[in-house]
Specification:
By secondary structure, the chain is an alpha/beta fold. Helices cover 25% and strands 20% of the residues. The chain has seven helices and ten strands. The chain has helices spanning 73-85, 107-112, 128-135, 150-157, 217-222, 240-247, 252-271, and strands spanning 17-23, 26-32, 38-42, 50-55, 59-65, 89-95, 117-119, 139-143, 183-186, 192-195. The strands form three sheets. Strands 7-6-5-8-10-9 form a six-stranded mixed β-sheet, with helices on both faces. Strand 3 and strand 4 form a beta hairpin. The relative contact order is 0.14. The structure holds guanosine-5'-diphosphate and zinc ion. The site of zinc ion has 8 residues, from helix 6.
Length: 272
């Protein structure tokens, strides 16, 4: 079922519905509960104000690997920007911690911004209790490149799930696509995980360029100090953001992520 009888809202993972049974494994959606939250991003084009990815979500977990594939802050920042846009909580899971002697550099910056960072290993079981506690009783959207170990983590957390694990392709270093559509996965301990179809969903555009920095907590803190209220924090004089990057108060990788998203947003804006 995709559409409501009134032709209105498209159902998304996490929507709570009342179904009237019309057969042994058939039914009609009669009612959709009002959403208490959504994971969404601005979408470009007239009449498409927002793209909703999931409904009734508590938090979003970005799953990355410490190694194989290597840690990618760009993806983390993109997902966290969408999390801020949606007014949800974000957390960072760094899996395959067994493969490295030290956690990847730069994680402290995320903790300092208020995002919990969990170091895990589906192989050794490190960090799984903390992750289980974070997920219990809550609805969590899980995002991350394939091959970082999302399926392995879910299986280790809740063996009842028995999800397919694929070998990482030796040539590309990426996992083959095991998951094709966003999926609702109830947890035995209560709560559920929504496994997103991929990370392309987290593209950000359709937002005014001057608003991009508000989706970066670290930039948003200092941006009010910029000389020009519509400062894009590139080459403008009196830019408090670039000043903070120069002093090391904002991580260079966060600033780079900001610039990349800003470019995306500006490019799409001239397309339309
Ligand atoms: P997904 O695509 O994110 O669901 O990743 P998978 O769960 O399919 O795992 C991809 C590959 O990484 C598999 O070969 C797993 O055995 C391996 N893997 C997953 N988690 C870990 C981990 O914590 N440590 C190590 N060393 N390998 C892992
Ligand atoms: Zn600025």
């Amino acid at each position: 079922v995709d559409l409501l009888p009134d032709g209105g809202t498209v159902l998304e993972p996490g929507d709570r519905v009342r179904v009237r049974r019309t057969g042994p494994d058939r039914g009609t959606v009669e009612e959709v509960e009002p959403r208490r939250s959504t994971l969404s991003r601005p979408a470009i084009g007239r009449g498409r104000v927002e793209h909703v990815m999931a409904a009734n979500v508590d938090q979003v977990a970005v799953v990355t690997a410490a190694e194989d594939p290597e840690f990618t802050p760009g993806l983390v920042d993109r997902v966290l920007a969408v999390v801020e846009y949606s007014h949800l909580e974000g957390l960072l899971v760094v899996n395959k911690i067994d493969l490295v002697p030290h956690p990847p550099a730069g994680l402290e910056a995320y903790r300092a911004l208020g995002y919990p960072v969990l170091l895990t290993s589906a192989v050794t079981g490190a960090g799984l209790d903390a992750l289980r506690a974070r997920l219990a009783g809550r609805v969590t959207v899980v995002a991350g490149h394939s091959g970082v170990g999302k399926s392995s983590l879910l299986n280790a957390l809740d063996p009842a799930l028995d999800r397919a694990v694929r070998d990482v392709n030796a040539f590309t270093g990426r996992g083959t696509h095991t998951t094709t559509a966003a999926e609702w996965i109830p947890l035995t301990a209560g709560g559920a995980v929504i496994d997103t179809a991929g990370v392309r969903e987290f593209g950000l555009w359709g937002i005014p360029a001057r608003d991009v920095s508000w989706l970066f907590r670290d930039l948003a803190r200092v941006a009010p100090g910029c000389r020009y209220p519509d400062c894009r924090h590139r080459t403008e004089p009196g830019c408090a953001v670039r000043d903070a990057v120069g002093r090391g108060a904002i991580a260079a990788s966060r600033y780079e992520s900001y610039l990349r998203i800003l470019e995306d947003v500006e490019e799409r804006a001239t397309d339309s």
